[in-house]
Each structure stands twice: as C-alpha cells, then as structure tokens.
C-alpha cells in the first residue's frame, strides 16, 4: 500500500466531520507510542509552552543525575539516550526558542555534573553537535531573544 501525499490527506480531513476525525485520531494513537505522545503534546502541552519546557527540564535533570560517570562506555550510552528523547520532545514542539532553551539546559547540565566529555572523541563530538544546533537555533531567534540567551550560548561553547 502506498501512502497518500500530505495534500491529499489534508483535503480529505477538511471534508470530515469532527466525530470521524476524533475517531481516526484515537485509532492513530493506539498504534504507536510516538503518535500518542505527539497528540498529548498538541492537546495538553502546546497551549502552555513554558510549562512544557519545565517538564522536559525535569526529565533532563533526572536523566543526567543517573548518568554513569565511572564508565565512559555507559556514560556515552546514557547521553545518547537522553539526546534521543530530548530531540523527540523538541520535534514535538517545533519552536526554535524551545529547542534553544532545552539544548542549552542539557549542555549546561552536562557541565554542572562534570561529565567528562573530553575523555574520548564520541562524547566530545556529541556535545559539539549540540552546540552547533544551539547556534543554528540561536541565529533564527528574534534579536531581543538573542540578547537574552547570548551569555548562556557562550558558556556552552566555552566548555569545548
């Protein structure tokens, strides 16, 4: 079966009534955890983006506290897992301010917990790629917001 294009799906959705659409969304949510998480974000979290950011920051804090700093191998695996989840949450939001704030929080959290990113190339490269994402998101923000985040961005860059 070939998937329909987004244009075709959009046309069909416009023609449906709200009961049919609700039934389809519920059915879609049953198939994958990611679909359910995205629907949860759109319905409950999107209206209050700041509360969503705080919720994700709590997750990052808890996850970074559990990173095994005694073994480079396990630290690397833990950091990858955190970043995979964090990037998924950032995709749900789609806002550059949210992306910047969460990635900055992650990088500053790594610094605060003294996770040795200089012990090998993999963790250092992961950290560097997050700094590149931060710079890209920073460049797309409004000038007023850029001044608010400038100091934190520089602090994240200086750790390398």
What is the gyration radius calculated from CA atoms? 19 Å
| Tally of DSSP β-strands | 0
Low-confidence stretches: none
Class by alpha and beta content = mainly alpha
- Discrete helix count: 8
Mean pLDDT: 91
Question: Overall 3D geometry?
Answer: globular
Helix content: over 70%
Strand content: under 5%
Major sheet: size, sense and barrel closure? none
Q: Please provide the ordered H/E string of secondary-structure elements.
A: HHHHHHHH
End-to-end separation in angstroms reads: 48 Å
Describe the structure.
The chain has a domain at 48-158. 80% of the residues lie in helices and 0% in strands. It is built from eight helices and no strands. The longest helix has 22 residues, at 72-93. The protein is globular and about 55 Å long. The termini are far apart. 16% of the residues are buried.
């Amino acid at each position: 079966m070939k998937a329909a294009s987004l244009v075709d799906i959009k046309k069909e959705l416009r023609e449906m009534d709200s009961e049919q659409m609700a039934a389809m969304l519920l059915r879609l949510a049953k198939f994958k955890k990611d679909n359910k998480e995205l629907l949860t974000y759109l319905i409950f979290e999107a209206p209050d983006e700041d509360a969503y950011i705080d919720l994700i920051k709590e997750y990052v804090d808890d996850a970074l506290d559990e990173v095994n700093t005694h073994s480079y191998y396990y630290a690397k695996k833990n950091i990858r897992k955190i970043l995979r989840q964090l990037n998924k949450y950032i995709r749900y939001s789609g806002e550059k301010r949210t992306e910047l704030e969460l990635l900055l929080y992650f990088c500053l959290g790594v610094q605060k917990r003294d996770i040795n990113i200089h012990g090998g190339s993999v963790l250092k490269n992961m950290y560097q790629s997050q700094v590149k994402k931060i710079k890209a998101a920073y460049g797309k923000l409004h000038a007023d917001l850029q001044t608010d985040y400038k100091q934190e961005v520089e602090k994240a860059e200086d750790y390398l």
